[in-house]
UniProtKB/TrEMBL annotation:
<dbReference type="InterPro" id="IPR050469">
    <property type="entry name" value="Diguanylate_Cyclase"/>
</dbReference>
<dbReference type="InterPro" id="IPR000160">
    <property type="entry name" value="GGDEF_dom"/>
</dbReference>
<dbReference type="GO" id="GO:0043709">
    <property type="term" value="P:cell adhesion involved in single-species biofilm formation"/>
</dbReference>
<protein>
    <recommendedName>
        <fullName>diguanylate cyclase</fullName>
        <ecNumber>2.7.7.65</ecNumber>
    </recommendedName>
</protein>
<dbReference type="InterPro" id="IPR043128">
    <property type="entry name" value="Rev_trsase/Diguanyl_cyclase"/>
</dbReference>
<dbReference type="Pfam" id="PF00990">
    <property type="entry name" value="GGDEF"/>
</dbReference>
<feature type="domain" description="GGDEF">
    <location>
        <begin position="164"/>
        <end position="295"/>
    </location>
</feature>
<dbReference type="GO" id="GO:1902201">
    <property type="term" value="P:negative regulation of bacterial-type flagellum-dependent cell motility"/>
</dbReference>
<dbReference type="GO" id="GO:0052621">
    <property type="term" value="F:diguanylate cyclase activity"/>
</dbReference>
<dbReference type="InterPro" id="IPR029787">
    <property type="entry name" value="Nucleotide_cyclase"/>
</dbReference>
<dbReference type="GO" id="GO:0005886">
    <property type="term" value="C:plasma membrane"/>
</dbReference>
């Protein structure tokens, strides 16, 4: 019969105030954990350091704030789980498993040693939050242009290395200047934030949406050829057209012009962007609310 996992424990600085000195001189955990600001590395370092004292077969770490799930080893029958936090800041949940029960002494020792982990995890959280803010557009909550430039270069290298397709879709709101002029910038901001949400809902989980600038967005489609990008682009165009935006007593219907391009062997990041952007402007010249391909 499978045993129930140990009760969830909350780790905080107050919880361990009286136990921070217990046996910690036998371990170099704290100094080892100062070498990284990556969650996965911190968990790996910690578990490696405690393996001899608290043997375990499997590790699972979940951090919902950063959509992170890290697993290592084999998840076994018996487990102990800890929801980690410090000063009310959530730091994720750590679970250790093995084939035999954890003893009371082992759990007590583990709970003492966890105080070495929570502050490095807090530092990693602050660092990742700062990175997230630096690469996020505050209005639309999409990735910003800096994030796009980094991601595009990385995805081009990956596509070339794995002989995969890569496509871009440029999306530009039609007559956006008229929205700002006729209804004010508050309405323009609402239109952009709403459209960003529609874009996120229309694309696949593997696709990434970026605000490129002004009323222009770009969608990065990994492992997608031109035909697949056109299908996705048409779905996005139709989805935008189908929505109605209410602003005060006014009702607006937005449309967008889209340009699509796929990576070619001779492409640089700049040339790929240029073809997709040119196709988008061609869509505007041909009547708006349509999609064109940049060859």
């Amino acid at each position: 019969m499978k045993d129930k996992a140990a009760d969830l424990a909350i780790v905080s600085n107050k919880t361990f105030e009286a136990s921070t000195a217990v046996n910690l001189h036998h371990y170099d955990i704290s100094s080892a954990l100062q070498t990284s600001l990556e969650f996965n590395e911190l968990i790996s370092i910690f578990c490696n350091k405690i393996q001899n004292t608290i043997p375990h077969n499997g590790v699972e770490y979940i951090n919902e704030e950063f959509d992170l799930e890290f697993k290592r080893g084999v998840m076994a029958r018996h487990s102990c789980s800890y929801a980690l936090k410090v000063e009310e800041q959530q730091l994720g949940e750590l679970k250790l498993t093995r084939s035999n029960r954890f003893s009371r002494d082992e759990l007590k020792m583990l709970e003492s040693l966890l105080c070495c982990l929570i502050y490095p995890l807090r530092n990693a959280t602050l660092f990742q939050q700062a990175l997230k803010m630096a690469f996020t557009d505050p209005l639309t909550k999409t990735n910003n242009r800096t994030a796009f430039n980094d991601c595009l270069l990385r995805e081009i290298k990956r596509a070339e290395r794995n002989s995969q397709h890569l496509s871009l879709i440029f999306v530009d709101v039609d007559h956006f200047k008229h929205i700002n002029d006729d209804y004010g910038h508050g309405c323009g901001d609402l239109a952009l934030s709403s459209l960003a949400g529609w874009l996120k809902d229309s694309v696949r989980g593997s696709d990434a949406v970026f605000r490129y600038g002004g009323e222009e967005f770009v969608i990065l489609l990994s492992d997608t050829d031109i035909d697949g990008a056109m299908v996705i682009g048409e779905r996005i165009r139709a989805d935008i057209e189908s929505h109605t935006l209410a602003y005060g007593m006014d009702v607006l219907n937005l449309t967008a012009s889209l340009g699509v391009a796929s990576l070619k062997g001779s492409d640089s990041p700049e040339s790929l962007i240029k073809r997709a952007d040119a196709a988008m402007y061609q869509a505007k010249q041909h009547g708006r609310n349509r999609i064109e391909v940049g060859y």
